[in-house]
Automatic annotation (TrEMBL):
Superkingdom, natural source: Bacteria
Organism whose genome encodes this protein: Saccharibacillus brassicae
Region (Disordered), start-end ranges: 465-487
Enzymatic reactions: ATP + protein L-histidine = ADP + protein N-phospho-L-histidine
Pfam families xrefs: HAMP, HATPase_c, HisKA
Domain Histidine kinase: from-to ranges: 252-465
Protein name: histidine kinase
Membrane topology classification: Multi-pass membrane protein
GO CC annotation: plasma membrane
Amino acid sequence: MIKKGIGRQIVMHYFIVIFLALMLVEVVFLFAIRAYYYDTIYNMISSHIDVTVRSALISTNSSDYNKEEYLGQIVSLLKLPESELQILNGKGEVQISSSGFGVDKPVQTSDIPQALASGGTAKWIGRQATTGEPVMAVTTTLQQGGGQVYLARFVTSIEKVNQRLTEITLVSMAIIATILVIVLIVSIGLANSIVRPINNIIAVSAQMAKGRFDVRVEGDYRYELGEMGSTLNYMAEEIVRSNQIKDDFISSISHELRTPLTSIKGWSETLDSGGYDPDETRIGMGIISKETERLIGLVEELLDFSKLQQNEMKLTMKRVELRELLKEIVLNVWAKAELKKVKLRVESDGDYFPVYGDANRLKQVFLNLVDNAVKFSHESSVIVLHLSIEDGWVRADVRDSGIGIDEENLNRVKDRFFQVNTQGGGTGLGLAITQQLVELHEGRLDMTSELGVGTTVSVKLPLLEGEPQPEAEPAVQPGLPAETEER
């Protein structure tokens, strides 16, 4: 007995479908074979009637014989081996029979009125009233003239035919039973071929549910089962990777928080002890202020990420001129770029680049991108902020000629908590937040990079409708010479 489950369902459904199909074929076959046998008997009698009746009527003249002699002559000419020939009048009364036995009651089977009505041949299948034997009766109009109607009725037994049909039925049922046994065996094998991989996948998923993400679905399964196993393995790998990233993030953020807290605590204790001149006190307070701002920045980044993950980020949407916003970005980052002697240059293909968005969040996007560009640029290099319009989109490119990113890390650099250089500080959330902010503005963020050559980050935002299209201009912003930083 197959235990409850998908295996039993497969076996039962497969078995029922085959069983119903075989039963349908069996019924059609039995009806066809029965009709074949019965039609063969009928056609044989009909052929005999067609051949003999005409010749019998021509060779026999009723005026030459009395009634009994005439009917006897007809019987001797028309009789058929293994069949009883009855001559009936129009009322169905048997006038004479080839068997020699008389019939007291008129024959009332359906072939009599049918033959009389059509003037041709009719058939009836049933049981003999006196013996109960299954018979077939074929009746034809023999003579009709002078108001006198005679019918020739051939009655033949079909008991042997029915016995043969019963034998055929039993043989066919035995064949069906054999086929069903084979189907049952095959369906059980088929069910096991599906259930075993599923049980294996269930066992592996149960292990994963307990926290064992080192286990994998083994076996080269095909089709949907193979896809299910591969998906489960991929999920485990992603969980392991996410856990590793989370652990790296916790380690990194712990370090990021501990360093400024240590400085704040140290200078607070130092200043609390007193005895320092105003210059030293001012230096200490400056360090405390700087580290506090750093802590605030880390906390705000974490809060922004949390809001984005929970879809709680609220945007104040209005018209934003992207070119003016990039000017502000250049001014904000200039001091940091100056320390590395990195030049910032804004280029544009027109005067107006309006978008519909939250100015503060867009400023956060480009501040993060430009800050990263400065962080990973070589000294005395140039960072270009280029604006253009493409098919209803405002495109802003941030291009640097810094250290670049290899292909493997480029595919993961926008993942949350991921950092190419874990020693560079930060939470690894900057680009993840940036991408989600761009998507909230119905835009796209793309990155291309080559190790040792540089990186280009492209932000595409929908152009504000109804604004004039810009005309082509020189690559460098008007009023600023080439290779000159914008301040």
